[in-house]
Amino acid sequence: LHVLVLGCSHKTAPVDVRERIAVGPAELPAVLRALHDADGCDEVALLSTCNRTELYAAGPHREALVAAAQGALERLAAARGAQPVAAYLYRHEQADAAAHLMRVAAGLDALVVGETQVLGQVREAYRAAQQAGTVGKALHGLFERALAAARRIHRETEIDRHATSVSAAAVELARKIFGDLGRRRALVVGAGETAELVALNLRQSAIGDLVVANRTLDRARALAERLGGRALPLEDVQAALPDVDIVISSTGSSGHLLSARVIGAAAASRRGEPLLVVDIAVPRDVEPAAGRLPGVFLYNVDDLREVVAANLRARARQAQRAERIVLQEAAAFGDWMMSLDVVPTICALREKVEAIRQAELARTLARLPELDERQRRLIEAMSTAITQKILNDPTLRLKELAGGPGAADAVAALRELFRLDPPVPEAGEPLPAPAPQAQAG
Amino acid sequence: VTGVTPVPGDQVLFAAAGLLYGGSAVAYVADLYGTPARAWGWGTAAAGALAETAAMAWSVFAGGRSPYGAFFTMHFFTSLLVANFLIADAFLGLRAAGALLLPVACAAVAFAAVLPAAAPAAWQGAWVSTHVTAAAASYAAFALAFAASGLYLVQERALQRRAFEGPYRRVPPLCWLDRAAQGCSACGFALLTVALGTAAAHHRWAALGTAAVWAAYGAMLWARAQGRVRGHAAARLSVWTFTGAVLNLFAVALLWNAV
User: Fold this and answer.
1) pTM summary value
2) What number is the ipTM of this complex?
3) Percent of all residues in chain A with a pLDDT value above 70, rounded to a whole number
4) Among A161, A171, A177, which would you mutate to test the B interface (most chain B Cβ atoms within 10 Å of its Cβ)?
């Protein structure tokens, strides 16, 4: 059984190529069924996001599978009147395909390393393929293991734990100073887009109280209502300062809106409790000298960008740890794939031998009615032990050969010697009855 | 003076404990500055605490040494300090404190090596047991408060210097550290009150230094409760007070047999 992934991503193809083969949720079931009907593809799943379109397929013959997958994506592009996409496609097979899907699901291949949104998209692609009935044993194993590996990476590394946007960095700083924000009060000065993003992040971090101040009170009220806070006219900001722990300022003012003296007075009234002031405005709203006051932590937009840069460096270091997990899990998937080729034969052999054992046991016991219960159990145990010992070596040897060059021959020989495959009936001939078990003895 | 019989093996265990604490201190400092080494630090600190506890038990129960000497008090303080830290690391996420506490533990074990193992014959009985136990436990609590305060200053410095790597990531939030330092100081103060009472009942001279430490922590807690000292000032005060407390502990230990 072979598994492969064929597709393109933001790393290999520009958006005008990616959009040629992108598939939306509405058309996905029909596309999956069409791909599934192609010769050589027994199983199909399609992951299509804004950053990638990838076809995951499984089938018994490698060459046929590759040709079917390539043809399917080209037909998808051709159906939209687009040029061939072959030059932008990458292909990974077997354990490499698993490693690729694990990287994708864990966000290691994303635009922002460690992002978690793609994990949900992979889960959704898997579910869509299941609902379309195009997933079998191989892709089921592939997606389940990839999702488990991604969850492990998020659990064991800190790849998703640091802010990667300026607005989230402001909240990260607040958490570094105050810890839990549930009993803290924040004042957002300005009601523009940046201020709104920071306010939204604060609200999502369960800030205790949120006050929005703006020159136009109606805009402040609108934002405050959306975020469950209170509105304040800009003139009242100075009076409100002593009561807040966090000040986010992002107005279009040309001069300093908050002087060091005003900030100093507010900080002094806090008796040593820190005051966080985040000035995202350019030109700046807060006099820089305020940052030198005791108990005041003042950050501007460049500082927030430095937080984001440091976090991205930390994520890159965590990605190296995640890569080790990917390699472990992909190797485990490779072993499992190899076992798939021999497991049906092992099961068939064991079922046949067990049927013979039970039939012979029944026949022998029927001839020995004088045996008591203990003696019957001993004979049964002996028969089980004999069959287990006979089967032990071929079972182990087949597992050792799994995935290697001699596996197919060994499986074929075993099936032939033990007649594990039922004879193919001639046209018009009735299906044969099961072979009498007693013949084996 | 009682209990001077040497016990084979215990010195090796005490030395091993000191070395393990030293190794753990290195691991925790490396961890604080970004090299993941917490598992090593925790493991070596736990091994050190076990070695130290085993050495004390072996020395007292097998060797018949008196547990009331300065030597044992110092080791009792150290093992309690490390045990408290291991719990704080495992359950409160206070791994960064290892970078400050394990060097203290290592220094205390080294200092204990120069102390006389014997105890004055007069230092026996329930009062002394209570005093030694309460004093060692209170100093262990003060050490945790010291670590929280020290980390407050480290994190504050990182935030002010825009150093968004290393300690910035490992050290807990400022306000959490402030509250932790206050809580540990309050626990230590309550225990030291017991230690002071039992010491005063037995030997007033020995209680003088302890009374000074008690008064310093009491004043600090009162100022905190009044809202007069918090944040940076409280952290600095806590670090200096603990430094004084440790000097007092070392002085009392050195003068133990003379009192």
Assistant:
1) 0.75
2) 0.85
3) 95
4) A177
